[in-house]
Amino acid sequence: MSDATDPTETRRGLPRWVKALILTVLIAVGIVVLFTWVFPWVESNLQNPTMGALAPAAPDLVW
Amino acid sequence: MARVVRGVGWTLITLGAIVLLYVVYLLWFTGLETQREQRDLADEWNLTVPDDPLDVDTTVPEDEEIDVGDAYAALWFERDGERIVNDDVIFVVEGVDLVTLRRGPGHYPESDRPGGAGNFAIAGHRTTYGSPFWSLDDLERGDTIHVMDRQGREWVYAFVEQRIVQPTDVWVVEDDPLASGEPMITLTTCHPRYSDAQRLIAWGELLNDPLDSTAAPDADREEIAES
Predict the structure, then answer these.
(1) Is the CB of residue A31 less than 8 Å away from at least one CB of chain B?
(2) Fewer CB within 10 A of the end CB, N or C, for chain A?
């Protein structure tokens, strides 16, 4: 008698629709985090139109 | 081995998706945010600027206390009577911190007021948040820069010069940056586009006599109210 798994046997674990739901929620949360915190932070480091943004000293000259 | 390849593949796909989302954020999402903020500023403007030109005080005003982020002035550019740089009137807010600049171009608080004898300085985004200064480098001699203050006075500046400078060149927003002795407006924005490695600066000289300002023409007033 063989111990090989029957290929027709149902896989164990979460149902496929639950996995899809979890993945969808993770992607949605990821997008919210990206748009709310990550992208604004990156953008603020790349797009600063003010003068003195890189001036390290002379606080009265940093606008 | 197949597992590793699959993992690398998914990682690259995820990174690609994030980059695409960032492009969407930069080119579309930030613009939407600023568009909404500009509409709010237009409403605020209509509440605070007198409707009747006769109500305008034609003497040079004392500095009005305006909170950071509130509407400070309206700004537009003209060439031979046609609008340039930006099709819409842009509402300028008080302050130049990066959160404030999401609403629109900002007035450097330490600089002079519109129509003042010193330097009225404004910072604005070049490529994001509605890209108000995307085409600032299109300005040519003879173009005019128009500013309406909260009292409804229109100040007209003649564009005189633009220059690309380093971010640390803060002299550009100090009083009399070109040593001309004239009342100035200074506009600062990022250069090149999509980078803030340098700054593009545009200067204008006040055409009005700052002690004898005239009220905005009715047409301008109505146009701003409708924007």
Answers:
(1) yes
(2) N
Min Cα–Cα distance to chain A from B227, Å: 25
Question: Which DSSP string corresponds to B106-165?
Answer: EE-TTSPPTT-SSEEEEE--SSSTT-TTTTGGG--TT-EEEEEETTSBEEEEEEEEEEEE
Could you tell me if B156 and B209 are in contact, meaning their C-beta atoms sit under 8 angstroms apart? Answer: no
Residue B104's alpha-carbon distances to A20, B32, B35, B126, B193, in angstroms, are 41, 12, 9, 11, 17
A47·B108 Cβ contact <8 A: no
Q: Which residue of B has its CA nearest to A39?
A: B22
Q: What number of other Cβ atoms are within 10 A of residue B159's Cβ? A: 21
CATH tag, B40-226? 2.40.260.10
Nearest CA in chain A to B174: A61
The string of pLDDT tens digits covering residues A30-53 is 999 999 999 988 888 778 889 875
Ranges of H-type helices in B149-216: none
Determine the Cα–Cα distance for residues B102 and A43; give it in Å rounded to an integer: 11
Structure confidence by residue, pLDDT tens digits, B28-70: 899 999 999 999 998 888 766 655 544 454 443 455 678 899 9
The H or E element that residue B205 is part of is strand B198-206
